[in-house]
């Protein structure tokens, strides 16, 4: 759907009446957007916005790029800006509507689509999305009314029949649903969704042979839909074709290796046919995804006992009993496992508990435990399946089917080149340094600047221009030789004149580049003693000390947090919060001497964040952003800091800005925290 919108708008002639350079940048940006290079396109749109902030187009297209990166807040904000500049652009309402849908703001999306339809009343996509919004709100009468209008405009639009059939199913009108699904199939027998939809109804009706036949056809037309294999496995299971069902689960998991239903149900079927070890693998996977799933835990316990791992089985049974203290089967199985390992006392305790529960049941005694209600519900249910949300432990052997909410129509934008799908570690952007070498980036092309550093470069005292960067490049073999030679040269200069602070600083940089941290700190310290107003020496000493501490932590096997009393295996020195406080004090001097040096605030914020002083870190990130409104790394780290404090909405806003400014990993993190921030 987004692809169609994108194609339609990119084929429009540009309305820019600006200078040739702006037109050229806009053309390049739109080319990048069309070919799905979304991050790069955003950088170009930023340039156009900076040059001509009154134009609506760059905001609109940047919003379109952001929605493809799952940055829905950012996309909505850009569409707001586009609409403010030109309220008659249908596409801006359309994209903002999609962004609002992804944020579960269906009322806002409905308002956008209704406004857009005033300007373009025969736009099928607008009617389509408006209908889906009403379906999501469970306003089924409004959805049917919208779909009726849509079918008057486009009577052969099969998707509308499928959607109306879904609405009828929600209203328990199976006959009308089947009529609409069959109409869709008659109109387009090559659309797999029609066959899949009718199969769902036939599954609900218990017509498993017919359902399997429909799913055969759907799979023939679209072999890469894992859901069709999952549903066909269910149809085959009800026909006692266990091998066929397991084969379908295998195929579904080949397509979608993380499918919960596939692993859980295949594990049950493997256990039924005696394939216990492979069944264990499936339940191990399920419990990695949902470690608190008690039914999976109990099933794994049964399998562990079956394969001789009685202690593992007891661990699983105990976890279930802790959650459901009146689950009789749990005590029975744990008693049997305890007998196997010779724990007669434990087994007797479990058997006594079972006997007491049986007596209480005969005497009509009940408890107020949550699990009693759970275990008594549907106890007489003889069906072979259960809903995923069913917590009745007595149904632990039943095949799982999706909840109704999971079967609803989903909004998908599955396109190539989506950088937010690359899993990245959730960690802060690194510290800034003064160095000669910087990694190149196709996205971030900002040259970091400070007046004093530029003045030092003009003095020609450095062998290469000094750069401010947090993307330091490793040295090549030739560069290493070059800096070792420079150390010798600087040493000779220092011997002849040991009162020059800058010469000490120069050699300190060389030592830093060749990883001699101790010598580097010594030289930076001497530079400070010779000139206590020379802030670059404080800045670099803080950085080298920070890296030295991080190295010690790594040597001690520490991976995160500030150690309180950890011993470095090599240096037998403790790395404590006080050590990081020394780093912070150097940065205090930098800020005192150069209050406009934005990188001092940024680095100090990183140190405070590492010390878990998130409030203090936010103050420094705020100041860094105040000094440089385009400071991408500060937005990124401030966003993570807000998330650490539980302020996800503020955090995502900052991460959106960081992504807009070129930090690609922000989009993956936005996606992950958007999906989990309920």
Descriptive labels:
single chain, 678 residues, mainly alpha, Serine Threonine Protein Phosphatase 5, Tetratricopeptide repeat, two-stranded parallel ribbon, two-stranded antiparallel sheet
In short:
The chain has 678 residues and is mostly helical. The protein has helices spanning 2-10, 20-34, 38-51, 57-68, 72-85, 90-102, 106-119, 124-136, 140-153, 158-170, 174-187, 192-204, 208-221, 226-238, 242-255, 260-272, 276-289, 294-306, 310-323, 328-340, 344-362, 370-376, 451-458, 477-496, 501-513, 517-530, 535-555, 577-593, 598-610, 614-627, 632-644, 648-660, 665-674; strands spanning 385-387, 399-401, 433-435, 467-469, 566-567, 574-575.
Please tell me about this protein's structure.
With 678 residues, the protein is mainly α. Among the domains are: 102 residues, Serine Threonine Protein Phosphatase 5, Tetratricopeptide repeat (Alpha Horseshoe); 224 residues, Serine Threonine Protein Phosphatase 5, Tetratricopeptide repeat (Alpha Horseshoe). Helix content is 66%, strand content 2%. The strands form three sheets. A two-stranded parallel ribbon has the order 1-2. A two-stranded antiparallel ribbon has the order 3-4. It has a two-stranded antiparallel sheet with strand order 5-6. Strand 5 and strand 6 form a beta hairpin. The radius of gyration is 32 Å and the shape is flat. About 8% of the residues have low confidence. InterPro entries: TPR-like_helical_dom_sf, TPR_rpt, Ycf3. This is Tetratricopeptide repeat protein. Pfam families: TPR_1, TPR_16, TPR_19, TPR_8. Keywords: Repeat, Signal, TPR repeat.
